UniProtKB/TrEMBL annotation, chains A, B:
Signal peptide as annotated in the record: none
InterPro entries per record: NUDIX_hydrolase-like_dom_sf, NUDIX_hydrolase_CS, NUDIX_hydrolase_dom
Name of the featured protein: ADP-ribose pyrophosphatase
Gene3D superfamilies on file: Nucleoside Triphosphate Pyrophosphohydrolase
Keyword list, A-Z: Hydrolase
Keyword Hydrolase (UniProt): yes
Source organism: Listeria riparia FSL S10-1204
């Protein structure tokens, strides 16, 4: 597989922000020619598939500035420096939904946009969910509404493009697969 | 849902590249406080789930500079200005795999990373695949190897983290669901 490798000739840092960093690499292609690659560096994130005892998936309604609209997603958040992704998952679930879990299993991890970003998203499945009387508080610049949706409602929200992001579309398909295998 | 909206106070363009653009927005939060949002603008992309008559999925092995490694993905590519996404899908399938299709169906579209990017990825399912003697040529800075994998191989590649991006993990789960419903 090494024959496809692109060697870094030079890296220029364009922006180093609060969440992302942007670099531009000059690379040498497998045929010896030069090209440029625009790359977003991201700390990585987690997301949680949490289905309650009533067979409803916990979701959050959140305004996403890049899309200029409010969408519905499974609970998620970025990994803090040196934080174990499983702890991030447990923390974000409680902060965003008020539910705590004693049983968190890693399902899969995937790069969201390998063409231009290194963001790796870890997806966990949470079971044994308990509503907390005094849950952890969300970040001060984060505003969300909590939803509990059954599978038909989730499929309807996809139809309506209110559920419209990779991790949540993946989560609902996972739920369909679970039901199909049952 | 409007109560969650973040109003743009100011937008600063940091970088305007060949593929992505980076802007930083000063926003007014629902509680009246100010915050910043780092946003990557992307033209959007397509990906194609193509299962051959031999029940194998067409995939490409490609070096991804942001990840500094070679991974296996379903055929995909970014949308050119004013291009119909379905034409992009048909073109990318032929350029990357040498197969042409006469039957392309839109499956779903999702934002890959709604927290920091506006990239919208359209996924199509291709049927009636025909190997071309003289297929369209790929972009000059694009080097890929073509693979045809059965479902067990695909699941094994996920296990080995060689398949490790959102669209391809989604595509393999879609394939599992198809088989489960059969």
């Amino acid at each position: 597989m090494d024959s496809l490798e692109e060697k870094t000739v030079k890296r220029e840092t364009i922006f180093d922000g609060k969440i992302i960093k942007l670099v531009v690499d000059d690379v040498e292609l497998p045929n010896g020619k030069l090209s440029k690659r625009e790359i977003v560096k991201h700390p990585g994130a987690v997301a949680v598939i949490a289905i309650t005892a009533e067979n409803k998936m916990l979701m959050v309604e959140q305004y996403r500035k890049p899309l200029e609209k409010t969408i519905v997603e499974i609970p998620a958040g970025k990994i803090e420096p040196n934080e174990d992704p499983m702890l991030t998952a447990s923390r974000e679930l409680e902060e965003e939904t008020g539910f705590k879990t004693n049983e968190l299993t890693h399902l899969v991890s995937f790069y969201t946009s390998p063409g231009f970003a290194d963001e790796l998203l870890h997806i966990y499945v949470a079971k044994d969910l308990k509503k907390q009387a005094n849950p952890l508080q969300a970040d001060e610049d984060e505003f969300v509404n909590i939803l509990e949706v059954n599978i038909d409602e989730a499929l309807q929200l996809i139809e309506e493009k209110v559920i419209c992001d990779a991790k949540t579309v993946y989560a609902v398909q996972y739920w369909k697969l679970l039901n199909a295998l049952r």
